[in-house]
Design goal:
This protein is mainly α and about 80 residues long. It contains one helix and no strands.
């Protein structure tokens, strides 16, 4: 193999590696975009779960108040 053939083989190898590198950069960019969308979705989900928990706590309080009222109306001692 002479020097020109070696240079041609090196050039082909370099072009192939450069192509792989570009493909990997595109994949990484798509993964980063997907990660950002997932992170945004996570924040929204966390907010929704917090709202549900707060609503449930408020409903529990209402139930407890009504339970005490019913007990008082029935003449029973409030349950603890």
């Amino acid at each position: 193999m002479n020097i020109d053939e070696r240079l041609a083989a090196l050039t082909q190898s370099f072009e192939l590696l450069a192509s792989f590198h570009k493909d990997n950069e595109k994949r990484i960019e798509r993964l980063a975009e997907s990660h950002m969308r997932l992170a945004e979705g996570h924040v929204q989900l966390e907010s929704l779960v917090t709202q549900i928990a707060e609503g449930t706590a408020r409903l529990l309080h209402v139930v407890e108040v009504h339970e005490h009222r019913i007990s008082d109306l029935e003449g029973n001692q409030p349950q603890q």
